[in-house]
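Q: Here's a chain of 593 amino acids. Please give me its 3D structure as tokens.
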Amino acid sequence: MAYKALYRTYRPQTFEEVAGQKHIVKTLKNALATNKIAHAYLFCGPRGTGKTTMAKLFAKALNCQEGIGHICNKCSDCVEITNGSHPDVIEIDAASNNGVEQVRDLIDKVNYLPIEGKYKVYIIDEVHMMTTCAFNALLKTIEEPPAHVIFILATTEPHNILPTILSRCQRYDFTKVSDADIEERIVEILEKEGIEYDKDAVRAIIALADGGVRDALSILDQVLAFSGNTLNVDDVYSLFGLASKEDKISFIKFIANGDVTRALARINAFAEGGVDLKRLTAELLEILKDVLILKKTKSEDELTTLSEEEAEDLSAALSMKQVNEMIGAFLRAQIDFKTAPNVKTMFDIVILKLCTSDDSEEEKVVKTPAKPAPIRQIVEEPKVEKRIEQPAPTAAPEVKVKPTPQPVQEAVKEEKVEVKVEPAPAPVVEEKKPEPQAAPDWLFEDDSKEKKVVETDGDRYELDDDMMIKLMVTGDKELRKSLSARWKELDSYLGHPTLGDIVALIKDGKVFIATKNVIVLEYDFEKLSQKANIKENGKKIADILSKMVGHEVFTYAVSRSESVRLVTSYHNLRQISQLPRASEVKINIEELK
């Protein structure tokens, strides 16, 4: 007989065997005991948390020959439901049966009475995949089905279901199963199978499962296929590219000690071993969380990842400031990973910054006392110079010998005032610098003599992502840099009687893409980019920039959020070698207008 996966072999056959979801089990059992059975249920929640299993158990409890609420697993109804062959329990995969025709066929069969059981139970899995038309066709039937029909809808995305459907169902939200419940279920299965195991391996599988019992059993199945009839943590680490706890703890110590060489060597070892650096970051945060808990509470009761000895050892090696600094850096890294083109480079930089943070603080401390010394010298030097220069005028041999003492005394008095005010005159001289700048080479007069008004409404240029990627592929980085460097030349036109308003709109943006014939501007705010894309404004912007670059160009504008999204798409396509070749891209600006 063909091998049967563990999650299918050990699928719960009674409500008591279900891992977690105690609130749902209790509610359904009470409803069955009091015969308060609804006509439609919605089971929603993360994958692998027991939605389909619960639906089958509910169908058994409705049709068991021992009576409603019983699950004997011995009568023909229970056995056939377990095997998936019961004629009155119909499982439908909405991912492949999501059209109106399939729903109409279902509605036609709903009115037929049950063949063997008391109720006809329709279990519609992945119901969010149904089309809007299919939902609408099913709406009336779900609202008022025949007395012998019960619908159970299962989904991982309840937000994609029509509100009119949601309002007609009793909703049950399945939660991620706790680590303790998953561990209990895995250990129970391992003991039934007679497999030797260590607890660290079980915990590693639970961490990978992320609250899903089915995922945990699938991972367990895969590890046992790799290692045979033993389950040890090293096999889990090597199979799924995980770092051992000891390696992670020593890695954190390298960072705390500022040991850049060993920290980078450990990162390279992680990368060569296939360790997922994003997952590693999350695991390091779990360890640091335990250290922070121990430092603040002095209690080991709340530790989830580290043992008491490991937590105390790491707590002694790290200061509170270091723990908080690492947690902050890793939390920011998790956000930056989403847009980083190279995760390893990003991770290297984060670790380097953490390792060298103390060095930068020492440099600041050394530099601060060194600043006052030259300031005192500079203040003292002008005094010496002025005292040397003063005797020169007093040496005048003329008759004006008597008046000279008075100016000398006044000068001495003024000298003290001038020393304090002395820094002020120096910058005043610099005010003479704003001399009339030479006009740019491309300076021109507007022929129309009519003010170019910035429109606030009208038809807009719209370029799709495919065209934007083509422009990014053909973009000239050097051209963009040179054009950005000349952006200040636009200042000459800010006060222009006819062009001033349009130039101000151009100046609000910056060059995002520059090709031979197309210039894409980036604006911080979407309102500005939409204003720049109004066709009347776009023509005026293109006219000015065309004269600036010396040939006709087409201009387009994007907001900052759009540019970030486009850059991310560009890097994703580049990583899978799906970018178009620049030599094959042909862009006709007349088609863009």
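Q: Can you summarize the key feature?
A: The two ends are 66 Å apart (CA to CA).
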